[in-house]
Design brief:
Strand order of the largest sheet of chain A: 3-2-1-4-5-6
Enzyme class (chain B): translocase
Membrane topology (chain B): Multi-pass membrane protein
Helix content of chain A: 55-70%
Strand content of chain A: 5-15%
Largest sheet of chain A: 6 strands, parallel
Order of helices and strands of chain A: HHHHHHHHHHHHEHHEHEHEHEEH
Largest interface: A-B, 118 and 82 residues
Strand content of chain B: under 5%
Protein name (chain B): proton-translocating NAD(P)(+) transhydrogenase
Radius of gyration of chain A: 25 Å
Distance between the termini of chain B: 66 Å
Number of domains of chain B: 2
Catalytic activity (chain B): NAD(+) + NADPH + H(+)(in) = NADH + NADP(+) + H(+)(out)
Distance between the termini of chain A: 79 Å
Mean pLDDT of chain A: 86
Oligomer: heterodimer
Number of domains of chain A: 2
Low-confidence stretches of chain B: none
Number of helices of chain A: 18
Number of helices of chain B: 5
Mean pLDDT of chain B: 88
Shape of chain A: elongated
Function (chain B): The transhydrogenation between NADH and NADP is coupled to respiration and ATP hydrolysis and functions as a proton pump across the membrane.
């Protein structure tokens, strides 16, 4: 009996580390420690469960083969997880988070599949199992699609005709199917497996039509889904640590999702039910007039060298080109010559909120050089040169001026108030939202085509000679 | 039906307390997080829901050793859960490592 209490206390400690960890994660100074605390609590809960858990009705047995299998599974997962996490490039982190999230969802779904048979006759427990199974599966397949979209295996949003209606119908059917299983309690597992497959399909349908720029919101949402699925598992086992952990992530994840939506100034329903229609993109493309102006590297260098203030707007293109180090070099060089340089960070620059901060921090750019949107926008009027590197949608004036644009209403960086705007892009391809950018056609704007890393390196060497 | 629901709620009342209080804790704890930390926070939260692995371990412990199919499924679930936990915490740590203060 005392053994059970030891495990209960371990779970209590683990739950507390989760709360404290999350709290510390929301402050820059304590974030890293917070993550480690939570990881410690997690390790404690896992080890405790392996050696101390016992089912109330005595189902639990510890044959060596089972313990070996469990430890082997943990070993495989640890090595694979550790290697992927430590080898991955900074640019690939968002999709990796999505993938790990999917793994958690799959884990919850499998638990549901396995526990179904053991709980026939208990309506409450079955409802919990089926709910966890559905949410876990949706989270799994949805996360995999989000992963594929972010690593650009799946490039264009796929348009299924009237997918809103289709998705709603499928969702309702899925819930009814789940409810039916809880009600009828078929003894054969076939229907449950069918439900599992059906939920996987729904997860795919749910994410596939959502445009790339909205993917961070989707990942955050799926993240809270997996939290919920874990919590259902905790409810089933009367397991407090799963319950607290799951619910914490579920509610914190929901708040985070809403915060991200707020940063993009769009309601969540708008993200899910889609405003990034193909039609709107076509219509805004038609209005483009004016011409594109090229600028050479030496002209850019001169312009920057004699500027008083330069604002750099980094975007995903910078991340892809791995140009964060060379841009820092450029910044230092300009500062040496008395030019004031800051970075303007749009809340959703890159593929995730905070993505740019993480990336620039990697190359030792100091905190106070990263200025958030609300603070930098009034400063553009006194800025001589804005250098946009691989960013597009976050500087698209259509968000303010064109109600038909899919990004209309999203707050943007007001770079057009600056004296000169230099845009570095690889080509004239549209941004992640798939829409044209009128900024590029403005007389104040010059285009500096080429791969960000190569162009910036040349810019640095040009500046050094001046 | 009504009495069944009532019994279910009554039997699980402690769990329901935990759920409701945890919802509020989750909301409060990340009330005002700077945009800089959105990604690491999401990633950290992602690792925490990996606690679902505890459920996978419990399933395996409760499965008779002869049931090979169930053990195999459980094995997969534990691998997935571990990936979520270890990968999640490791990625978060890598992100946060870059926030080190430098003067």
């Amino acid at each position: 009996m005392e053994i059970k209490y030891i495990l209960d206390i371990i779970y209590l400690v683990a739950s507390v580390t989760f709360v404290i960890g999350l709290k510390m994660l929301s402050h820059p100074d304590s974030a890293r420690k917070g993550n480690l605390y939570a990881a410690f609590g997690m390790a404690l809960a896992i080890v405790g469960t392996i050696f101390l858990y016992n089912h109330a009705d005595g189902y639990t047995t510890r044959e060596p083969i089972k313990i070996i299998l469990i430890l082997a599974a943990i070993g495989v997962g640890t090595i694979a997880g550790w290697l992927t996490a430590s080898k991955v490039q900074m640019t690939k982190m968002p999709e990796l988070v999505s993938l790990f999230n999917g793994m958690g969802g799959a884990c919850a779904a499998i638990i549901g599949l396995m526990e179904y048979e053991h709980n026939l006759g208990k309506t409450g427990a079955l409802a919990t199992i089926i709910a966890g199974l559905i949410i876990g599966s949706v989270s799994f397949s949805g996360s995999v699609i989000a992963f594929l979209k972010l690593n650009e295996t799946m490039k264009k949003p796929i348009r299924i005709p009237s997918y809103n209606i289709l998705n709603t119908v499928v969702m309702i059917a899925l819930i009814l199917f789940g409810a039916y299983i809880v009600y009828a309690q078929p003894e054969h597992l076939l229907l449950v497996v069918l439900l599992f497959v059906f939920a996987l399909v729904y997860g795919v349908l749910f994410v596939i039509p959502i445009g790339g720029a909205d993917m961070p919101v989707v990942i955050s949402l799926l993240n809270s889904f997996t939290g919920l699925a874990a919590a259902f598992g905790g409810f089933l086992y009367q397991n407090q640590v799963m319950l607290t952990g799951g619910i914490l992530v579920g509610s914190a994840g929901t708040i985070l999702t809403l915060a991200m939506c707020k940063a993009m100034n769009r309601p969540l329903s708008n993200v899910i039910f889609g405003a990034f229609g193909g039609g709107a993109a076509a219509s805004s493309g038609a209005e483009v007039n004016g011409s594109i102006k090229d600028i050479s590297i030496s002209d850019t260098a001169i312009l920057m060298n004699y500027a008083k203030k330069v604002v750099i707007v980094p975007g995903y293109g910078l991340a892809v080109a791995q140009a964060q180090h060379v841009i820092h070099e450029l910044e230092l060089l300009l500062e040496e010559r008395g030019v004031e340089v800051v970075y303007a960070i749009h809340p959703v620059a890159g593929r995730m909120p905070g993505h740019m901060n993480v990336l620039l921090a990697e190359s030792n750019v100091s905190y106070d050089k990263l200025v958030e949107m609300e603070d930098i926008n009034p400063q553009f009027a006194t800025t001589d040169v804005v250098l946009v590197v691989g960013a597009n949608d976050v500087v698209n004036p259509a968000a303010k001026t064109d109600p038909s644009s899919p990004i209309f209403g999203m707050p943007i960086l007001d770079v057009e108030n600056a004296t000169n705007i230099i845009v570095n892009k690889r080509s004239m391809n549209a941004g992640y939202a798939g829409i044209d950018n009128l900024l590029f056609y403005q007389p104040k704007t010059s285009m500096l085509f080429g791969d960000a890393k190569g162009v910036l390196a040349k810019l640095v060497s040009e500046l050094k000679q001046m | 039906m009504f009495s069944e629901i009532l019994t279910f709620l009554g039997e699980n009342i402690q769990m329901i307390y935990i759920i409701i209080l945890s919802v509020f804790v989750g909301v409060e704890v990340i009330g005002k997080v700077p945009a800089v930390l959105h990604t690491p926070l999401m990633s950290g939260a992602n690792a925490i829901h990996g606690v679902v692995i505890v459920g996978a371990i419990i399933v395996m412990l409760n499965t008779p050793a002869e049931n090979i199919l169930a053990l195999a499924l459980g094995f997969v679930a534990v691998v997935f859960g571990t990936l979520n936990v270890v990968g999640g915490f490791a990625v978060t740590d890598r992100m946060l490592e870059m926030f080190k203060k430098k003067k």
